[in-house]
Amino acid sequence: MTETAQPKPEVQKDRSMVLQKEMIARHFERLAAAPETKEPVVYTFVPGNLTELVRSFGALPVLPEINALQSGMRGKSRDYIAEAERLGHSEDVCTYVKCDIGMLKSGNIGPTGKRLPKPDLLLLSYTGCYTFMKWFELLREEYDCPTVFLQVPYQGDGTLAPEHRQYIADQLRNEVVPALEQATGKTFDEERLRHYLGLSAAAEDDLVAVLQSAKKKPSPIDAYFGAVYYVGPIFSAFRGTEEGAEYYRTLRAEVEARAAAGLGPITPDGPLDEQKYRLVVEGPPNWTNFREFWRMFSDEKAVAVASTYSKVGGTYDFGFRHDPKDPLGTLADYCGGCYTNLNLPSRVDMLVNYIREYDADGFVINSIKSCNSFSAWQLMILREVEKRTGIPGGFIESDLVDPRYFSPANIKNRLESYLQMIEARRREVSA
Amino acid sequence: MNVASADSGRAAIVDWARSKYEDVDLRGVREWIAEGKGRRAAGHLPVYAPREIIRAAGMLPVGIYGGGDQVEIIRGDAFYQSYICHLPRSVIELAQSGRLDALSAMLFPSTCDVIRNLSGMWQLLYPDLYVRYLDLPQIRDPEAAGSFWKRELETLLRELGEVSGVAGEAEEVRASIRVYNEVRRATRALYEARREEPWRVPTEELYLLIRAGEVVPPEVYIEKVRAYLAAIAGEPARMKDRSRVVVVGAFCEQPPLGLIKTIERSGCYIVDEDFLIGSRLFTRDVPEDGDPLTNLADTLVRHAEKTSVLYEPDPKGKGDLMRRRVEAARADGIIFAAPSFCDPALLDRPMLRNGAEAHDIPCIAFKYSENAGQFQQFREQAGTFADSIKLWGGN
Amino acid sequence: MKCVVGIDLGSTTTKAVILDEEGRILGRGITNSRSNYDLAAKVAREEALITARFALLRHEVEKRAGAEVLRSLLKAFRLSQTLAQLARLEELILGQIPRLVAEPLRAAARTSVGSIFDSIRTEEEAWFKDPDPPARSDFFRDAAGSAYMRLAEEIGDPNGVNFDLLVGLYDRCIIQVENEPLELGFRDHIGSALERIGNPDAVREGVEQAVHVPLDEICTVGTGYGRARLPFPKEQIRSEILCHGLGAHRLFPDTRTVLDIGGQDTKAIQVDDEGIVTSFQMNDRCAAGCGRYLGYIADEMNIGLHELGPLADRSKRRVKINSTCTVFAGAELRERLSLGEKREDIIAGLHRAIILRAMSLLARSGGVQNQFTFTGGVARNSAAVKALRRLVEENYGERTLNISADSIYTGALGASLFAQREAAA
User: Which domain holds residue A340?
Assistant: First the structure.
C-alpha cells in the first residue's frame, strides 16, 4: 500500500502575529528608504526608550539591541562577533555590542536584508546599563553624528527620588528636545507627544491584561519566550503609535479568547495546553538558540507564567502608565522604572510577587555571560528568593548572541534536573 | 631597579606604606577608631568617591580595593559566576570574613554594572549598614550636572551625618576641602617627581604610598609623602636606559604588586598610569572660598581627568586621549592593562588604542586579575615592548 | 527473580547496577563508553548481569568448595572473556593486513602480529596462575592495549614491520572490537572457566543453579547527559543529578551534601533525608578544576595520574596557585619550577586550587551540610581529599566526609533506585 503524504500541519498564525510582522516590515522599509525620503533616524536603547518623543518629531527609532538580537536569531551573530574581535574587541565584553559593531562593519544590513540608515542622532539613554555608554561612544566614532546623553539616575533606594525625577525631566527639556529639534529640523510639538502618550497608555493596559492572563490555569501565554514577541512593539518603534495600539488590542482579544477556551500558548512546536510546570523566569533569553531553548521547556510541559525580562523596556504591571497630562515627567517616571534601573531589593520583591501572584511551581534564572546588569548578582537572587518563598530555583548559564556560550547539553541537563527535582518534591509532599 | 636604600628614612616610609597595603584586615582603621571617641569610618569602592564629604561628616574615608592576591576566596566565589571580574569576589570575601566590620557605611560609585549591583547586594547582606549608590554626573551641561551633583553631595553629607552623629556644615566641608587639596598637592608632587626622574621613584613605592593613603587619615598621608620626597631628593640615583610607558586601564580592580614590579623590571619606567585614578581625579584644586559644595561639585564636573567610567562628550575625545596622556608624560609607549571581564576598560580599549596608533604611539595590551600569581607572560611582553621601543621606536 | 536495572552513560565509562526485589545490590558492570550508546548500555548491563550471577553462585560455590576455588573460578571466567576478545581482535587485525600493509611486508606482519598475540596470551595465562597478581585496569582496551604497545615496541622492526605500522593496525581494529556485540555470554565463559579449574563437581552444581535462575528485568532507568539521545524511552530517563543524589543517599543514608568532581564537570548537590535533590550547582562552560586538569598536570610532569596524590602528600609548604585554567596549567607549572618551587609543593597548591573551585560550587548550592559525600574520579586522590577535608573544616566546621570505593557507580545506583520506585508504582 502506498503511503499518502501527510499534509504539513498548518503553522498557526494568530492575527496579532501577522500584524506584528507587517508592522515591522513597514518600519524597515521606511528605514531603508530614509536616505531618500530624508526621514530623520534616531538610534536609542530599549531601556529608557523615548519612542513617543522621538516620533513626535517625525523621526524613526532604531534600536541596536534589537538589531543584535535579530542577528542572533538569524544565525549571523557568530560572524559579526568574530569580526568585532578581529578589530580588537575583547572576548570578555558584551556580545550585543560586538554583534552590532560586526554588523556595521559588514555593511549594516538589517533583518529584512536592506541596509540600515545612518543615525541623525544617537540618543544615549543611560538607563540601567553602563555598557550603553560605551556602545554609543563606539558608534559615535563610526557615524560622526550628534549624540545626546540622558542620565537616568539609578533607583538605589527603591524609588525615583523627586529631585532625580526632576533631573531627568530637565534634561529632556533642555538637552534631548533641543537635540531632536536640531536633528530633525522640527520644533517640539507637545500636543503630538501627549497624543502618542495616550495611545501608549491604552496599549499598556492591553499588554498588562495579556501578561496577567498567565495567572489562569492553564496559562494562555508563555510569559518568557512568548512574551518576547508581545513586548517587541512596545519596547521598540511602536509604542504610542496607532498600529501599536491596534496590535495590542488584537493581541489582548486573542489571548482572552484562548483563556476563555482553556487553551495554552502556541509554541513553535504546537500548542502547550497541558502544562506541568508553571515557572517564573529571570534574565534575558538566549537568541542564537531561541527555539531550541524554548523547546527544552515546552518538551517538559513547562510554561513561563511571568518574567522579569519582559519589563526591561518598561514596567507596566505595577500600575505605571504613561500620562499625557505630564509629558516630560511621565517619561522620567517611565525611564526610572525600567527593570534594570530598579535596585536589587526591588527586583527580589518583584520575583517573589510573581511567584506568589502567578502561583508558580518554581523559578529559573537564565544567567547571561554578556549582561552584568542582569547577571552580576543572580546567584544571590537564587538564594534570596528561595529563602523568601521556600521554592527552589533553577540556574542556567548562556549568552545573548554568542553561540559559543550556549551548550545545549549543559543547559538541558540543568533544566531537566531542576524540573525533575520539582516533580520529586511534589511527590514527596503529596505522599 | 632601585631597591629602597639602606637610608632608614626612605626604607622606613616604604615599609610603613607596605604594611598599610597588606593590612587587609583593616587593623589600622580599627586602631584609629579605638584611639578616639565616637570615631567612625566609611568605606568606598572604586573609582571615585567624594572623600571630602566623608571627612566633613566626621568619618575616615577608607578606599576598598579588594583583597588583591592576599586573600583567598572561599565565600566570594559563591556570589559570582566565572565571567565576572575578580574584584567583587574579594570585596565580598573581605566583608563576609568580618574584615570590614570596622566600617559604618559603604559607598558605591557609578563605575559599572557590577559595582552598581554590588551596592544592592550590600543592602541585602547588611541591611543595618548605611549604603549609598553614587550616580556620578555624566551629562555635558556643567550647570545642570553641577547642580545635580551638588544635591547628591548635600544628601550624602546629611545622611552620613546621621550615621556619624556629626552634622557637617559648610565650615566642615571647607576645612575638609583644604586638607584634601593638600593631599592632591602631595600626590601631584609625587607623580611629578616620578615623571621627571623615574629612576628615583620606583612605581612600586609610589603605588604603595597611594594605597596607604586610602586607609589612613589624610594628614598622615601628606606627612609621609612629603617625607618620602625629601628622603629621595638627596639620594644618588642612576638613570637607567628604560622605555617610558603609560599604563592604562587599571583604574578599578588593581593589578597585583608583582605585575607592577614586573613591568618595570622588564625595562620600563612607568611614568604615568591610572591606578587609583579616583583618588586624584581632579586636575586642579577645589577652590577654598565660596560655597564649598558648589565648588566640590563643579570641580568634578569641569575638572575631572578623563576616565573610562565618565562619559566623554567630545566626539574626538577618546581618539585624542592617549596622545595627550603620552605627551604630558613624555612617554614612549602605552601598555593597556585591564582586568579580565572589565567592561569599562575593555570596551574603551579599541577606541583608545586606535587613537594612539593613529599617532604612531607604540602599544601593547594584556589582561590581568588582581590575584594573578605568575607573571612570565607579562615579563616577556613588556620586555619585548621596551626593547622594541628602544631599538625600533616601537615599530 | 525480579530485578531492576539502572544504567549511567557517562562520558568516559558506562555503568550498570542491578537491584533484586528487596532493593539489594545484586550486580554491577562497568565498561568504556563508546560511540554506540545502545551497545555501551548493553555491555554494561551484561557485565552487571554477570556479576549478579556470580553473586548468586558465590554462596553456593563457597559453601561447597571454599573461597579459593571461587576466586579461581572468577579469574578463569575473566580469562575466558579476555581470550575471546583477544581472538576477535587478532582476527580483525589479520584481516586488515591485506588492506593496510604493502605486499612485501604482509607475511612479516602476520608473523609479528601472531607473535604479539601469542605473547599476550602467555602473559594472560601467567596472570591467571599468579596467586597474587598486580592490580590492573579492568577494561580490555586498557590491559590489552598497553600490552600490545609494549610488545609492538619490542618486536617492531624499524626497517620492516615497524612500531607505527603495528600500532596503526591495532588502532584500526580496537574500536570495532569494542563496538561489536559480545558473542559469548555468561554460560559460555563459565563453562570454559569450569573446565580450566578442572570441572569439580561441587562447583558445577553451584554453577548450574546460578546459571538457571531467571533474572527478570522488570524496569530499567537510564541516565547520562551530553548525548543527542539516550537509548531509553523518555519515561525511563532520569537526570543524572537526581540519580547521583539518590545513589549517594543509598550509599550513605545520612548524606545531605554531595560533591562530584568528574573528568570534565563538577556538581554540588544537596539532598533531603529521602535522597531527593533540593538544590544543585554545576560548573559552566569553564571546566577549570575538573579531573581533566589533573590529567594535564600529570602529563606535564610525566607521571601517572595515580601518582599525583602521593606526590602532593609529601608537600611541606603551601604554594598558592591562583589559576586552575587548563590552558595555562602547563605554563604555570613550568614557571613555578623555574622559580625553584618544589614539585610536591606546587602539586599540593594545585590540588587546593581545584578544591577551592569545588568549594564555590558547594557554597552556591547551599553549603556543606552533615554528612558530606565526595564522589567521582578525583575522590580517589588522597591529596584532593586532604585539601577538601581541611577546607570544609575551616569553613563549615566538623563534617563527616564519606568516600566510597564504589562511588563511580553512584549514578547507576541512583538510576536503579528510581527504577525500583517506578516498578513499585
Answer: 19-430
